[in-house]
Design a protein that fits this description.
about 130 residues, mainly beta, Rieske Iron-sulfur Protein, 6-stranded antiparallel β-sheet, 4-stranded antiparallel β-sheet, 1 helix, 10 strands, about 40% strand, binds FE2/S2 (inorganic) cluster
């Protein structure tokens, strides 16, 4: 880990409850504003790489936009895995039903990893990150 904090964005660029994706030295990072506290996490979901800034942030809990795995943005811990899709009871064409069934079976074998977090600090209105 670097000793140096790097200025990334102005704090007022992210509304409370909002997120913004940035790239820093080749690292894809999402900065989260949770009640005016700023957290930085890896951008890609620990399940299947969805961009997490497109998810939802509720306090310190971030929900992935793709399959709804949840993460704690303070320590990056994966709190829950993906939610199985519900194809309901609609009658589907056989090929589509079989395809969705196979996807469902594969999804059970894809592990959700915790995500990386980065140390942040606020300085003179700037969010800074230590890589
Ligand atoms: S990609 Fe995030 S839960 Fe599947």
């Amino acid at each position: 880990m670097s000793e140096k904090f790097i200025r990334v964005i102005r704090a007022d660029e992210i509304a409370p409850g909002g997120m913004k994706a940035v790239e820093l030295d080749g690292n894809e990072i999402v900065i989260c504003n949770s009640s005016k506290k700023y957290y930085a996490i890896q951008r890609r979901c620990g399940h299947m790489n969805a961009p997490l800034e497109m998810g939802t942030l509720d306090g310190i809990y971030l929900t992935c936009p793709m399959h709804c795995a949840q993460f704690d943005i303070i320590n990056g811990e994966a709190l829950s895995g993906p939610i199985p899709s519900d194809i309901g009871h609609e009658i589907l064409p056989p090929f589509l039903g079989e395809y969705l069934h196979n996807i469902e079976m594969l999804m059970k074998h894809v592990r959700t990893e915790s995500i990386r977090t980065y140390e942040t600090k606020l300085d003179d209105g700037w969010v800074q990150i230590r890589l």
